[in-house]
Specification:
Chains A, B, C, D: This is Pimeloyl-ACP methyl ester carboxylesterase. 4 copies of one chain form a homotetramer. In chain A, helix 9 links the parallel strand 7 and strand 8. Chain A has an 8-stranded mixed sheet with strand order 1-2-4-3-5-6-7-8, with helices on both faces. The radius of gyration of chain A is 18 Å and the shape is globular. By secondary structure, chain A is of the alpha/beta class. Chain A is built from 11 helices and 8 strands. Chain A is 41% helix and 19% strand. Chain A has a domain of 188 residues: 3-Layer(aba) Sandwich (Rossmann fold), CATH 3.40.50.1820. Chains B and D meet through helix 4, helix 5 and helix 6 of B and helix 4, helix 5 and helix 6 of D.
Chain lengths: 272, 272, 272, 272
């Protein structure tokens, strides 16, 4: 519903509702449109802010190569644009990585952080997975089959046959056949290749909720366990029988965990 | 801060704050006083209601034997006393069992339900554990050592040595040496012996959050997995490296999960 | 070291050592040569029999499409060729699926069965994964990146960088660039598409060891849990922090579990 | 079937079969008689050696207090008595602790080591559990209820009602009512209180199999994960849905894992 300019590019964002500000940071294939089902609940008591990173949704394309630090600055510019002193951030996967990088540079701007299915680094294993995605870019069905099944838990994918088959038809016929979209996907994927904030996280003190999924085959739960050890003030919870796309497989838990964590007046209680 | 009469007994309860009503149902050894650290956060946006079951805290003792259905009626009387049409319930362990029994009888009075470390039945294994507790009742240290270590994850118990040692001294010197308290504990334990709502849960449709702990040695995570299968509209999440006393070991997660689940304006979103 | 004829095709097999016969059934990309490191230990006290399925290793290619039932008959012909009344079978992944199909048809020929990383059916999810493999067949690097990283646990893949990079070079330069090999891989993958013995397993009584890997992203541990429930006389064990290629990641456990299970004089002991 | 003298005490042991020597080290409540169902399988291809530690079974009582190092010397004396240069050791729980202590002192005498449900140290948590056991010593039923249910997985305990009830009757009527036996149990429990070989294990290079149980509520799986990290040449496997008494709940897996690991001609194979 609005744009701001960043380094000569137009960046798209939306705001909904009133209350503590909460910015949602998209996964790599997502856009502001992906949050439709959550909009009502997330804006009921909060100022909900949706953002298309560069190369996503209604924001401009980038053309040249870049790293996720570009998106960090996009996020920073958005916060300045909206004139917030502090915001809450939720990131999932790619968006969680940007959030982690953001916090190592602009920690004072963040109140609380919620991370679903997020890694603190792109391991050689994950980089090779990303390369497999990129090498399938010229064939819409190949791209679908290489990227989508692994995003879901087998249980969810098998149970919701009709919905998945419809998505297969839709995605292969539209976005995965769109050269511009696929160029963006390749650039976004590459922008995450060098991600590694292992060392930087040791100084972070932001209160952070880390959520893993038992059947996450992209950023396996071991990644979130490692992240939990790196982040001093973090809390960790696990979604059983759930895949990488936790927001779609467990929308109620996604909602309750995020809003509960962001809106609690106090999280520092302890019996000790 | 207030009492109401139930079958000639005084029942103690407290109310704090304003908003959607949320009644907290104590674990077996707990009382309204156990919630001290949570009071601020839980009453910030909700009408928080604390309750001492009969034989707990400042409510009257019972003397004769009873089942948890007596506590179900206590809870029902409280809701009537407060004149609520619908409430939200949070139960942990014993309190979760009472909540489950309540919902099978008075489902229309409940909006949403949150269950931590709760079983749908007292298995022969759990009954024998309870008998071990009761047989240790005449020796305060024996009672402490039989009941307390297994309530915590070994990791928590070992890490917080000083706090646990202080609790050992305090509990053995006071409540576990108090014959009246111990009589109550034995009755409360026995009141749960026949608990089994396996069949009744099949008709329940209340939106329910089920939380298990990976290192729960009283109501192991397999119990919550079974409960999740029995309850049609339930969501399930697991707290890694946490024991039965999840509220004390993970107070931030306990708070965020409960308030997020109870207060979300909508939990029915779905991509399907 | 030897061939026998099956339906006009040459089938390659090897035998090593003396003792209870144990036939190893290859995963889809494997051949008799894949077992090199295990040969000594597996033939020390057993008659070890290695087999290249049709379209694998030194056995003939098939050309036309087929199902895994063709391999079932190859295995049956091998047992007849060797004149065994009963054999022990070990299968991993594709080989485990053939073993499961074999047992539903020729149960009387099998003494004990050991299954690593095996599913009782090719789910829609797994079929789509297989289709992604086949669609990458014309590009050796794409095929490598689509099939190999997911076979290993991220931890193993990341730790053994040099070995994995050498495999990448070797596989992309040789077999994955070999049209004949790739044609075989596509046919083998398709032959498993219709695999589903869910119903047939209910009558099986063969003593079976089922082994899952915690980080198996091809046949996730939930598949082996389901298989364990289907197979009355099965035992189930899980390899923590291990991927689909358990034989390579945990060769000592692979060896001990298989030989211990096959060679125990008695497995029917019970305290009950 | 035989005794040897150790520091003026008689120590009972048995030998069965021929082959590589394998000494089984009892859990705390066990004796040579506990291995009845395993004797045939374990002696089929091995020299099986059973041992009653001091204060167990048919070995002499000790009277004064001691640590597990006394049992280490008993084991050492047995190996000398039998004139073995190297033996294989299997320990479960208390027996595993003695085995771990033995290896830090007499590593050259051990070929391979197998540890079920074993901790490298008695944590404050476990010490308090032990104290609860000892404080229940004067009441046979209390002792049963405090020690036995937690040894089994709830699933096993609940499913085998008749067997468990018979054991309850038998144990409370006999051994748990026998002052001499109970005196021994208290001493044995105390002998493990100071167990901690965390530092010493760093130098151990013995090939070791570590087996945990998912529902072990005495030595939880986290203990074996820690042990696996401490022992350089260790392999780790987990028994799903199994309790502390893994030998009774999963006798086939117990047998296959032990014999397979001890008897494999080679466990050093690696693809790297």
């Amino acid at each position: 519903m609005a744009y701001f300019e960043f380094q000569g590019k137009n960046v798209y964002y939306e705001t909904h509702g009133e209350g503590k500000p909460l910015i949602l940071l998209n996964g790599i294939m997502m856009s502001t449109k992906s949050w439709g089902i959550f909009k009502e609940a997330f804006s009921a008591n909060n100022r909900l802010i949706l953002l298309d990173f560069l190369d996503q949704g209604q924001s401009d394309k980038v053309v040249e190569e870049y790293t996720q630090d570009l998106q960090v600055e996009v996020l920073h510019a958005l916060i300045k644009e909206l004139n917030y002193e502090r915001v809450n951030l939720l990131g999932i996967s790619y968006g969680g990585e940007v959030a982690l990088r953001f916090i190592t540079k602009y920690e004072s701007l963040v109140d609380r952080l919620v991370l679903f299915n997020t890694s603190h680094r792109t391991s050689p294993w994950l980089k090779d997975i990303g390369d497999a995605w990129n090498l399938s870019r010229d064939n819409a069905l190949d791209y679908y089959l290489t990227t989508i099944p692994v995003i879901y838990s087998p249980e969810f994918y098998n149970r919701n046959r009709e919905w998945m088959e419809n998505r297969k038809k839709l995605l292969t016929a539209t976005v995965f056949s769109d050269k511009n979209f696929m160029d963006s996907m390749v650039r976004l994927t590459r922008s995450a290749e060098t991600h590694d904030v292992t060392e930087d996280l040791k100084d972070v003190r932001t209160r952070t909720l880390i959520v893993s999924s038992e059947n996450d085959f992209i950023t396996p739960k071991e990644e979130q366990e490692a992240l939990h050890k790196l982040l001093v003030n973090s809390d960790y919870v696990m979604l059983p029988k759930t895949g990488h796309g936790s927001m779609y497989e467990r929308p109620a838990l996604f909602t309750a965990l995020t809003l509960g964590y962001i809106n609690a007046s106090d999280l520092e209680m302890t019996v000790l």
